[in-house]
Amino acid sequence: MNRLAFWLLGLGCFVFFLLAGIPANVLTGPVSQMTPIRLHGVSGTIWSGHVARVTAPEGIEIPKLSWDFKALSLLRGTVAVAFSTGRDNWHGEGEAGWSPWAGVVLRDLLLNADLSKVRLPNLPAEAGLVDGRVEQLRLDLNGMPRSGKGRVEVEQLRLPTFIGGELGSFVAELGDREGGGVRVRVKDKESPLDLQVTVEVDGQGIYRVEGGMAARDARSRLGELVKQAGPPGPDGRIPIRESGNLAQLLK
Asked: Phi and psi at residue 163, in whole multiples of 5°?
């Protein structure tokens, strides 16, 4: 083993023993001061900890967040942590890593949820089953997407009758955008709503949404609602077009 390897091993051991003894509740103050996120019921250590509840603006709440640092990642010059969250009606887990030269890398993100028992801000879903996996998502140091790969499916989606009712199943596929950034293609699988939408975000955070939608039964309640979105294009779908800056959108 050469001298550099010894130095890296020693550094990793030092950081391990340092973090292993620091209580996780020291994170509460800095997180509250630097972000609108609030941590409740923090226990354990920075190396391996648990938060009973995480709250954020717009009514966002994440229960039972746990994490464990991956020691071997320090030898690669990366800080990585495995995490899991959820309760009986939904579960999420994955791995997040950070380095000053590679930015943020999220790996093996899994999400399963029963929307009939989960309250989501701005999405009044009455029912639906979510099954998603993101194999990898890379973000630069500014939080802008660089590349990604994954797939999310929503089955048996139902909204209140006055905004659509039974909508069936949809799938979203995450992939790389030519020239850098990511592309998400969203389409219906079995639904009364004919939906085809592509969202592209480049490396600078400029996003573009293009696609269209149409009700398969124009005389249905859904058909009446869709008509209010505008006139159909040559393909029979009402065009969906939007663009902007992702950083401004997330403010």
From this structure: -125, 25
Of the listed ranges 18-32, 81-95, 114-128, 154-168, the one predicted with least confidence? 18-32
Residue 159 DSSP label:
-
Closest by alpha carbon to 187, among 200, 199, 175, 201?
199
pLDDT digits (tens, 9 = 90+) for 130-159: 999 999 999 988 888 999 999 999 999 988
Q: Which residue shows structure tokens 């500014």? A: 142
Q: How much is the average pLDDT of 65-75? A: 80
- The pair of structure tokens assigned to 249 is 């959108």
Distance of alpha carbon 78 from alpha carbon 104, whole angstroms: 10
φ, ψ at 196 (rounded to 5°)? -140, 110
Q: Are 209 and 240 in contact (CB under 8 A)?
A: yes
| Per-residue H/E/C for 167-180 | EEEEEEEEEECCCC
